[in-house]
Specification:
This protein is an alpha+beta fold. The protein has eleven helices and 13 strands. A hairpin with a 4-residue loop joins β7 and β8 (193-198). It binds alpha-D-galactopyranose. Alpha-D-galactopyranose binds at residues 34-35, 37, 168-169, 171-172, 337-338.
Amino acid sequence: MHEHLVREFIKTYGESDEKIRIFRSPGRVNLIGEYIVYNGGHVLPAALSMYTTVLARKMEGRTVRLMATDLKYVVQAELDRLKYYKAYKWGNYQLGVAAELMNAGYDIPGCEMLFEDKVPLGGGLSSSAAIEVASALAFSRLGGHEIDMTALALISQKAEHNYVGVNCGIMDQFASAMGRANHAILLDCRDLSYRHIPIDTSEYRLVIANTNKKRSLGDSAYNQRRSECETALAELKPAFPGARFLCDISLAGLMDNIGLIKDANRRKRAVHAASENERVLEGAKALESGNTRRFGELMVGSHESLRDDYEVSCKELDILVEAALAQDGTAGSRMTGAGFGGCTVSLVKCGAVDSFIENTGSIYSRETGLEASFYVSETSDGGTEVS
Ligand code: GLA
């Protein structure tokens, strides 16, 4: 299955007595629970059968060489000088992970790596987390360390904070590390407790639609929303002294005290956080009891809240969601991930998937002049070594 990658690896780096090991970690789609990771809310992502695969081989010395199948040059870095490579356009995710592993006390050997990225880049399906967790697995296992997957997810998140500069929550790395085929993960972001929830695909399929609009503004808006929520929580403290996170406050409690938040935008951000958390908890119950219709309604509520209160959607995402909801057989549809472009996720009756793709695609291109891509992806297990 990976022979073509092995050939490319040897063409790039030559033969050696060391074994080439293969690791992979998936992208994810978040079914519901958007932008509440850092507010101590619950999220419901599922890992997808789209992966970053990395071939890795130890070598003498303290040099790391990185290359990707769609890149025609090798990036080289010294393990003892990793902070000097932060500005690398490609390679900083991997090197950031190596640096954070070493900061956590794990020794890493010199090595050569070849990456194949099959998660669409910048599409809101966590291509970054897939790269980070696959790298964390590869570096740690080459170093002989059996670190558990939750710890690898946390190290990957640190790399994104400190090297890539996005103050992301733990959802994406956690889903990439801890996914399970045919399940979503109900993750409580306060303490990382989680439960796998079965997804019944006998009647409905998950259809992902990519706006093919690259996320613009995304990273700075992400960080800005995060700080708005922190301020809103501080303003609410007099009424809720025990609240550590915005999502510790119920929607009803928030509405009774909304006047404590001094700014209209911050009030909307808080309403999104509290209401989204309630939608996730109800959604998990609906999925467990096979009530897909209710789950679909909650997805639509989530999209509206992200569009109107959190203001992280965009014209292209809204058009895709509206087109999806106009199709027979659609139970629900919403933007997924950090927004400002990227993807939507819809629940579509199995027999209606082809017409869904055709009709939604043509409405989208007529209204935006862009072509959407569609993925009818399976869910998958999390990061692992591939034998
Ligand atoms: C990005 C982050 C996640 C989460 C989503 C929004 O994907 O990496 O942690 O905050 O945005 O829900």
